[in-house]
Design brief:
alpha+beta; six-stranded antiparallel sheet; GAF; Bact_Sigma-Reg; HATPase_dom; SpoIIE family protein phosphatase; hydrolase
Amino acid sequence: MATAKVSNLASDVQPRRRRLVITARAAASFDPQGRSVAAARAFVRDTLQGWGFADIVDDAVVLTSELVTNAVVHAGTRAEVLCLRAEDGVRVEVADRYPERELPLRHPGERPYADPDRESGRGLMLCAALATRWGVEYTATHKHVWFRLDLPDRPVGTRSAGPVVPDQFLPLAESRVRVAVLQIDATDAISAWNDDAEHIFGYPAEKAVGRPLAEIAAWPQTPGTGTGVAEALRLSRWEGSYGVRGADGRVIPVYASHLRVRDAHGEPSIVCLLVHDDERALLQTPVRVPSSDGQHSEPRPTDPFEVFIGSPAPDDLDGLLQRTVERARDMLDADAAFLLLATDDETELEVRATTGLPSTRQRFARVPVEAGTSRYGSARLPAVHDDLSVVPGAVPLLESTGMRSVITVPLKVEGRLTGSLGVAAEGPGRYTNEEALRLQFAADRIALAVESARLGELERLRRGSLSFLVEASDLLAGTLDRDQTLALMAQMTVPTLATWCAVYTIADQASDPYLAYVLHEDEERIDGLKALLSRVDPPEPVREAGARPWPATAAAVGGETVVLPLLARNRVIGMLTLGKPSEEHFRQEILELADDLSRRAALALDNARLYSERTAISRSLQRSLLPPGSPAIPGMEVEVIYRAAGEGNEVGGDFYDVFPIRDGAYGFAIGDVCGTGPEAAAVTGLARHALRLLAREGLGGPAVLERLNAAILDEGARSRFLTLLYGELHPQPDGGALMKVVCAGHPLPLRLRPDGEVTPAAEPQPLLGVIDDLDLYEQTMTLDPGDVLLCVTDGVTERREGTRMLGDDGLAEVLTTCTGLTAGAVASRVLRAVERFAAEPASDDMAILAFRVPQQREAS
């Protein structure tokens, strides 16, 4: 059975298994997709670093990556990762839902578990190579691959002891080693001056005693620490280099070690030991350089940066910062360490790397640079806190973490604060100023590399931000639909900038904000989030640009929430709200990017609003130009089909109308104004309303059209020529209809008889809007039962496909197939024929007006 085989294999790998005492656990589940492997690596790295297991993080991440890859990529199932912490190591379990995948067992003479040239089994090969113990366990539904990594033993010894070095490599000193000994009293004046001090600096004791040290000290000392001479004399212990002005006026570089003491009466003073700077090895605290084999080899120049950070240094900022906090923790045997980077204005510090602390929760959290009035409340100066329980809130980052002893030192480049490095321990009174000095030296050596890496990261972020904003601008510019603009705003922020997003809109200055759109990276949580936000008062509209916290959501939604105003055309049209869960914080760069996006999104949203308003106005005006409806004419079938060309147009240059003139008489018209769009629609409105008015005044067809022609010409530069078919219809008692028509430059109406014959029903006459004097005449005809009169605009007859055109003959051919059809069916068949004639959409307005006299049997 599989279980037995696995047990035998586990025995081969590690015969003895010690009892695992679990002190902490962390679990996560990952979907079967490629990006889950990276997410699993980050989960294990953050977990182990939070537990302080930096020594085994890399091996654990490599093994987890291989095992999760096997689960989500090769097996295609969900992977479940469980980390178990013990006092002496960690156990990681990776489970998948493919239990029938058997372990490739090794038999005598066969190949090993895996080799680098094969895809399968590589994770197990790595387990065998890296893990202290490992194994595989099967259940009915899961397969568990586990490995254990034990913590390496940390060497025990004198922390400050240097390596054994042959005599020829010892530092050089004068044959007569001279150490100047000074004592500084409570007023910072020199109270004691030994013979070596007189020899080195040239001042006799009587000329040195009583003078303030600041008079002869050439400050500053080590670049980047930012500590003045007066502040250095207040520290319990200080070590570093500066200059002393000799009796001959020359500045003599010295290396100094200051120790603050008090006499039997409790009066404090400072004992200063000073040597020539090139003899600093006499006083300088030695740097612990790890030795691999204890044997001395050919010496090479030691880079102080490499001594602290190790070689090769990580080439990415996050890796460099993480390595820094781990080395700082190890250097001072601390329980935790942290590194914060300063914002551009140096008013806040942003958490970027921690070890021994809940790093995921604290990442990108912010604390002020100046947290208090004393020097211990400023991140610009070194500080040692013996017990945080005595001064709660002194280090906001460490609240509720159990840490009590803390050292914090600044990172400075060319005198400018760029960050802060700190170490902490759970016990009180763990650190002195000597450890603070060592940490400050480490910070000085790492500061420039950190700043360089940070600038590189900012440049990459800047380029990525520009690409993001260009793409966002293109997407927002591609739509004028308000709802689509709201959706794009949210989709561009989630999950790129935030975990969830809510967009509030403001109709006008007197209206309250309205929750218009909600999006969460987990689609199943959108409805719940929307319900929660609906119960919270919306954020207050503020005109000032930039992100501001929104604390009202803390209780309802949880996590960090910021609000950015949507400002367009000097008014607030809404708010963009971004949120992250409780364990995450917004980076300053992300907030700045969101601010840029909000400005572009606000303008796009306002453009969509204006477009919607103008479209509504346009449609309302266009509808006013259309007839209110066709009247019911006794004994007649009437059907109208109208299509305006162009997106958003309901009225174009073509128009129609059917209206009552007086009892028993009805007027009808179908016309075509030159051109399309609003200008043509304006003439359309003039023509339709004038026809109704003139016809009801009792004028005949020619007189109506002559007066309309004069009205069009009166429009001057706005006038357009117009083709028009106008007529009067008089239903007859016997079932027919008398029709009087005038065809002014318009396509001729066609008459369809019941036997299928199609003939023109009028003669062509001059169009309107061109000349002043028109001599028009009226033609009379009678429609018999079963006859159809079809009237169209040239958008029908001039329908084209390449060089082909439907034309009058093509329309007549279509009409011959309509014998026996109702007026509605005739109009519909003509429209289908026009649409099918060409593949491209119609580019001209179309109007179809059909009249039919029902036959007697239909009427009955």
